[in-house]
Every structure is written in C-alpha cells, then in structure tokens.
Amino acid sequence: MKWTDKGSALLLAGVLLGLSGPLAAPAAGLPAAGAPGLSRTAAEPAEGPDPLDFAVVVDQSKSLSDKDLARETEAAALLSQGEISERSRATVIGFGSSEKSGQSPVNEVCPLTVADAAGRERLSTCVQQLGHRDEARMGPGTDFPAAVRQAVTRLTEGGAKTPAVPKVVFLLTDGRLDVADSPEYGTDPDIRQANGARRLTEELARARAAGVQIWPLGFGDQIDRAALTAMAEGGYRGACSGIPDSVPRMRVVGTSAEIDKALQETFAAARCARIAQGTVGKPPADLSVTIPPIATDGSLTVAKHDPKVRVTYYDPAGRKVPVQGEFDGSTFEVSGQDGPVEALRVKDPLPGRWRVHIEAPEGHGDREVAVRAIWQGRLRSDVTLDPASPRAGEKVTVQVRMQTRRGVVITDPGQLDGLAASAEVAGAGFRPFTFKLADDGRAPDAKAGDVRFTGTFTLPAGATGDLELVTRMAAPGITSDRRPVHARSGPDVPKLTAGLAVDRVTVHPGGTVGGTLDVTNNDSVPHTLRFALQDQAPGTELTVAPTPVTAPAGGSTRIPFTVTLAAGTPLGELGGKVAVVDSGDGDTVLDTAFLDVLVVAPPTWWDRWWKAVTGGAAAVLVLAVLTAIRLLARRRRRDLTGITLELRDDGRSLYTLSVRKGQSQGGTFAFTVDEPYGGTPTLRSVRGTAASTAHLLRRNGSGELLLRPRGGSQVPVRVGEPIGLGEHELVVRGGRAPSPRGRDLPWSRRPRTARRPGTPNEADAGTGTGRTRRGARRDRGNGPAPDSGNGTGPATGTTGSTGGSDPYDVNF
User: Fold this and answer.
1) In this structure, what DSSP letter does residue 473 have?
2) Is-above-0.90 flag for pTM?
3) Which one of 27, 37, 220, 632 is CB 3.0 to 4.6 Å from 174, fit for a cystine?
4) pLDDT at position 490, please?
C-alpha cells in the first residue's frame, strides 16, 4: 500500500499482528515528535515461537523424601524437554543451604543451554543429577536468597546480547526459608533467619531491576504462602500479554505427585502458551491429546518415569510420524528418549487428536504414563487501511484478520477467546498514541464474531514524513509475526482515489470471483493502473483480469474485474487480498480489499441432476402404472369369460355353451353350430384357422356385445334377448354388463357370492348338471343324440343358464 503526493511516495511495507512477544521485556520507546524518519525496511521476524531464557530452581533440602525429589526432577525435565522454541535457553539449579566447610547452598546441575535438538538431549541427561543429594556438598536447610541470586546471575549473564528475551525463574519448594544454621547470615543463630529474610528482599529487588520474573510453586503442608507470594510480587512484574494469568503469581499443590501437571500449567501461563491435558495409562496403551487448529508450534510431553518405556507418535490422520525431520508440512524433533521424560516438538502440527502408543518390557510397566501438549499459535496477519492514502487530520479505519503459517484463515472466534487487541501509531511530527481494535459489531466494526478486528484513528494534523503502525493482540497461546507498517504522510489532495469491492461468494476450484474498481483521477493526464494479489496462502494460484486498466483524466470510472482460481486451489477460506496500484507512480498502492471467498468442492453429476432424474423416474413410473391399469381395465371390459350362449328353436332350448377362461382371445369368441344328421344341433368353440369360417361374438372397449354371423354383418347383441342365427335363435346370458369406466377395475369388483346348491359351475354351464354335460360330450363324439337322451334338453339348458338370475353370472 502507498500514499502518493507530488514527487514523493509513501510505502506500507508490512504489518505487525499480535503480542509484542511472550514475556516481553519493557517495550522500547517509539520515536517522539519530530524524530528522524523511520527506516523503510523492517526486519522480517524470525520463524517459530519467540525464545525464552528460564531457570528451573529445585529445592533439595533434607525435608524432601526421595520420592518427592524424584518427582521434582521429573517436573524439571518436563519444562526443559517441552520448551517449544529451539532458540530458548534453560538452566537447572538445585538448592539447599551451606552450613559447614565444603558445602554450597546451590548446585547448578545444568548450565544455561540452548534448547535446540542437541541442547535438549544434554538437558535431559544433566537434570537427572537433581535426584542425587550429596550432603557433603550441600546442607539440609532452605536458602531462598542464594537460589534466587544464582538464577538471576545466570539469566542476566551477557544480557547485552539478548536484551529483549524474557527471563523467568520457576522455583519448586516444599517448605519455608531455613538458614538458622548458615554462618553466611551471621554468627548468632537467633538473627540468621531475619538476615535471610532481608537478603531475600534484596535479591528480589535485584531480579526486578534485571527484568527477571519469579514464579514459585510449593507443595505439601509446610509451605510459607506469604513468602511465596512475596517472591512472586517482588520480582519483575512484566507479562507476556495483558491477560491477568500471565502476571507472575505463586501456586501451591497438595503433594509432590501434582507438581508435574502444576508446573507445566505455570510454565504455559508464564510463556503465554496453552496446555492441553491428555490421557493417562500404563504400558502397553494408546494415549491421546488434542491440538487445536490455531496451534502453529507445540510439544507433546510424555512423563514416562521409566526410561525403558518406548513411545511411538501418530498424527490425527493415523500416520506414524518421524522422530526427526519433515513430514506432510510439519517438522518433528524428539528428545529425552533415554530419560524419564520424553518430548516431541512439532512445527505446524496437523490439528486434531494425536495418538501416543507406549510399550515397556516386562517388569517396567507398573507406573502410569501421562501425555500433555503445550502449544502456541504464531499468526500471520493481513491489515487494510481505509482510506489507503490518509491525509493529515483525516480519520483512518484499520482492519486486521489472521491466518496460520499453513495458510488457514482464522474464522472461529472461539479460538481467540479473551483476546484484547490494540494498535499504536508513531511518526514524525506527533507523539505516539494507541487506539483499540475490536470485533464486537459496534462501529466501525461491521459484524461481531467475524474475526476481523477494527479500529479508527485520526492522523494528527502535524504529521510529516515517516509513520509506523504496530498492532498488538494479547491472548494466552497467541503470538504474532510482528511486521510493522512503515509509511509516509500523504499530500492534502491525492491525484487518484480508488475503492475496491470484491464479491463475497462461494466458488469451486477453477471458478471466478467478480469485483469492481471505482477510481477518480484528479490529475490532468490518464493513469495506468493494474491489479495485484497480495498475501496469498501457500498453494493458492490466482489470476486477476483485466490488467492493466486506464483511469481517464479528470473523471470517475467504474471498472469491473474478475479473479480466477486455479483448478487446484485448496478448499476452505481463501486468504489474501486484491490491490490496485498506480503503475506510473512507482506502483503506489491505491486501495486493497480482502478476498472474502469460500472455496468448496464442485458439485457432482448427481448433485446437479438428482432432482430431474428422480422426478423423471417417478413420472415414468406413474405413467407405466396408469398405462398398465388402463390396459388391464380394457382387457377386463372385453373379456367374454363367463358368457353363456344358448341355441334355441321356436323358444325351445337346444344347447348351451359357456365361454371358459382363455377361450376369449382379444375379446372375441369363435363358435359354430353343428347339426348332425338326425341329431340335435349343438354349439362348439373353435380356434385357429377354423375361426375364419365361424360365428364371432366379441365385446368392444365400451363393453358392448357384438355378433358377426358367419358370412354376415356385425349386429349388436342384448343380454337375454334372442337374435337370429341361421335357422335358429341365439340367446346370450351371463358375463358382466357394460359399466362406466373405472367400475370394472380389479379393485372395483365385488366379492363373489356363494353358489347356491345345485347351481352349475363353469364346467357345468349349459348342461344343467355335470352328468348331462358329459352325456352331451358323448353324444357329440358318438353321433346324434336322441331327443330324449342325456343331451341338453330345453329344461336342462334353461336351468344352466337362466338369464342372469344366478349370483355367479351376475357378480362375475
């Protein structure tokens, strides 16, 4: 970003987001009014968490049991192994008293050591010396003044080399000041305690002057709480943030069994880190601990107690991670494998539930193992100013958002719970001042909880030359990249003013995002502008078009543009911003806008068309069902099954024939009248080629009966009424009468009523009885039947087919 004026440019070179650093020493003053211009080149901050110089001071007095001393030793090892910065330095000091010749009140078991890979291994080994008390070299008392003096001296040696690195003392004790037998505090035993208390006050004042914090941790029931409180309050009272928990304070736990957990929690508070408590179990077992998405640096500590316990680490994806080196964007380093405390330091850890598998040889798995994670989020920042080119006396809006080193934009306000944000402006021509940043939805903040911290300031009227903006955010577990914004005060009337707006949309990889540029050119000549992309997340490939564009002289112009995402763009919140720069004026940045874009996976073919597919399938299914119903209804309407044909002569029944199931083909029944010589005429159904010379009875789609005599024309038939058939008459009975459409559907049929006793069934129809029917068959097979034989006489035929009175015929 740049401010422009006639012949000079104002460069915004970067952004500082977050704390001034964990446990920051007193901040250096910013330039006063009229100070020379600030440097345009800001040193890029070092990667990883800020370093810390700390001393672990452990009580080795006679009042401690061997078990207490062993637990103190393991707690000290947890701090030295779990430190998350490889640039930190640590020293470990035991203390008691000096009461006779050859004794010393302190035992420096580990000199100040850089906590890199090799240094942590050295610390893992030397800290074990705390578990061996040598009464010849150390007395049984508790000399707090000597312990504090030794720690402050070691932490302040060569202080000019690392003046900004915070310095902290973590002191473990089970008792109270006891120097009654120490000749150093006087010849009279009665005044030694008073002299010791006075000496402690002096050492604490020295610590405060040197910027050294004191964090006492006591355990047991013999603790002098007042003395521990005095030590916490007597040292340096600076803190790593504005959070109250980061100010030095004392803490007391019931027994030494609790000190490892309590000391790590104290360490996290002092370091402005956070601690995640994991599970506990005896080998063999799978333990777990969860690392949140906001974490960028962490250390998994495993309190094994027994060096024989072996540990294997698995990331949230279930993959075994290496003990050294890089894997899937993370860097790993294990230390303390041969000691009672082991730690895995991780840079850019994969967020989620980590699994820690522990095993032990036989006889070494009787103690519970605990896993914890200490972590910190070192965030990168995006900052925008509105207007991007402020003038002296003009109100400026500052907006800040954050992302991790992995490029993950922080969108969950719960991850920044308790965060306090502010910014400081300094420069030539005015005194430095501070203003607040908030995410509370109150003006100028647009929306509460959107993790965009906003504030305003008015550039002082006397501002001339260089400016510097530093934003500070204070929260446990959060630090920042600390890139300052360097600039120069702008002219009264800018040649160009521009406003960028980018659509807030959801797109797929390979998609586009629209935006507009509104630019006013107050100059007398056109200006060539171009769009640029800034602060893109790793792996993101974006292009913006059109570019370059022209801002005509003396007018305002609206220019639409698009940002195109590459096909391989990662899913999630799209980081970075769009800038418009004046190519003819040294690429002066006129305005910037965040890319408020959510990238989601493209829809599948099924996602696009499932409604149409399922709707079409349902329609086809309904159509098929309706068609089947119509065909079934039509077939039933035309079916002649159950129809009875009666052949008559002068009102006398000669023969009856019923249409059985399957004899009605396509709604047509073919039959002939057989007239044997000297015998009674009979009816016979025919099929195949013989049907072409037969009489045809059929039912049309409306249910009407039609008869086409052989060689004649088709005539309608009424049920029960005779119709001429050659020399005889034909009466049609039974079957179903024509009905309105839908009444003859399968589900509209009424149940059949029970057949009356003696009523002929389908096999008997037309013969009166089965015996008579079989007799008729014999007659047809053996020649004409006499009138008085067993064929179908008038009475018999009438009985078998009386017009519709039979319930079977009526309800079929």
Assistant:
1) E
2) no
3) 220
4) 55
